[in-house]
Amino acid sequence: MYKMILFDVDGVFLSEERCFDTTALTVWELLNAPHFLGLNPEQFTIHPDDQTIQRIRKEVFQEDRILDWLKTRGVNSNWDMSYMIFSSQLLSLLKEVAKKDQKLVADILQNPITKESLDKLRETIKAKNISFTPQFDVFISLFDESEKVDKHELLIYWNRLAKEWFDLEVDQFSRTSALWALGRLVFQEWYLGEKLFREVEQKEPFCVGKTGFLSQEIPLADPQEIYRVLKQLRDKGITLGIGTGRTELETVVPLTELGFFSLFDSNRVVSASQVVEAEEAYPEYAPLGKPEPYTYVQGYLGRSVPIEKALAQSLPLENGSEVLIVGDSVADLIAARKMGCHFAATLTGLTGQAARAKFEELGADYILDDVTKIFEISLLK
Q1: Which ranges of the chain would DSSP assign to H, the alpha helix?
Q2: Which of 232, 359, 236, 258 is CA-nearest to residue 9?
Q3: From CA 79, how far away is CA 302, in angstroms rounded?
Q4: Is residue 32 pLDDT above 80, yes or no?
Q5: What pLDDT score does 132 carry?
Q6: What are phi and psi of 75, to 5 degrees?
Q7: How far apart are the C-alpha atoms of 359 and 362, rounded to whole Å?
Q8: What DSSP designation does 370 have?
Q9: Which has fewest Cβ within 10 Å: 145, 154, 211, 344?
């Protein structure tokens, strides 16, 4: 019998669709909005309809090919995805700018890339009549597929590409960079909406009027059935926790509205909010998001346990076989393996049933059609 079950949220309880939509809108805004690069300012709106959102997502993710490519390499954070896809287009744009202003390119790449950097770039594009059309279809081809590219390499790969393209020593691309932080804030604006963004981030939005997607979450199974299953697990004496790439607010609000958040042990709920806190306190360990196991390790130990103790936890866990991790992604599986825990894959993520073959190949302990089928697991019967 398992003593603890730690669940991911996206692709397990909630659909990831709105988060992926938000990622695409983030990249789209950074490229096109008049307050950022302004490539196509007339196309930008803070109230895109569903048809427009789907068109933008189809373009940015290339009908989800880029999304699937990133997910299979352990990239589980929408913040990371926004940053990487935008970085690819920014560097491609700078190739065009370099033909007319190499000094500006060097200045941008050798200093923190901030909104002010993008403002300066936008004015140069306009003044020198530089034409650039984003080409998202080249994203995957930018990587040398002869080498194994993992999540950490992906996050800093753009420094290497800048060296190859511009012969400049660059270190502005990383999980802790100003550009990554800028993309995160734009994402948060779209997802939270203006009012909640001001309350949570304690910052002025770049663009006022966004309504947000937090209240539009889609459950992946009947919420009452999820409640029934989780309550049965808890009544068996199993500790239930969460390890998610969402922030705490983005986790608590929708799961509370759906009626089953109270069944989790609050001390075992670890979100991106806690991961960012740990990275800020111990930057030498960053990045700590999945597939790094920190999210689940802190959940296993409990949020009351100091961060440094979680970081120092010896892995695999001595009693890892008593812990089950439930997720929809390769990143979750990798984290579970590092911890020595069992892993149950849910087929309610991005690729649905098509993910079965991948999880079989990777040796997932269990593969479930959805989270409510968890009692099919032998050690829970």
Answers
A1: 17-32, 50-60, 65-72, 78-98, 102-109, 115-127, 151-166, 178-192, 194-201, 223-235, 248-257, 272-281, 294-301, 307-312, 330-339, 356-362
A2: 258
A3: 25
A4: yes
A5: 96
A6: -85, 110
A7: 5
A8: S
A9: 145
**Three-class SS of 242-279:** EECCCCHHHHHHHHHHCCCHHHCCHHHEECHHHHHHHH
Interatomic CA distance for residues 272 and 74, integer angstroms = 16
- Neighbouring-strand partners of residue 243: 270
Chain-centroid distance of CA 224 in Å reads 28
235 Cβ contact partners less than 8 Å away, ≥ 6 residues apart? none
For residues 248-275, give the mean pLDDT: 96
Average model confidence (pLDDT) across the chain: 94
- The pLDDT assigned to 146 comes to 44
Nearest C-alpha neighbor of 214 from the set 370, 25, 14: 14
The fourth-level CATH superfamily of domain 4-15+216-380 is HAD superfamily/HAD-like (3.40.50.1000)
In 3D space, the residue among 308, 301, 305, 352 whose CA is nearest the CA of residue 328 turns out to be: 352
Token pair 């997932």 is found at: 364
φ/ψ of residue 4, rounded to 5: -150, 140
Q: Which of 99, 63, 130, 95 lies closest to 351, judged by CA? A: 63
Report whether pLDDT(147) > 80: no
Number of C-beta neighbours around residue 165 at 10 A: 16
pLDDT by residue (tens digit) across 67-77?
A: 999 988 888 89
> Which sequence spans correspond to the domains of the chain?
4-15+216-380, 17-214
Encoding tokens for residue 197?
């963004």
Residue with tokens 């008593």: 322
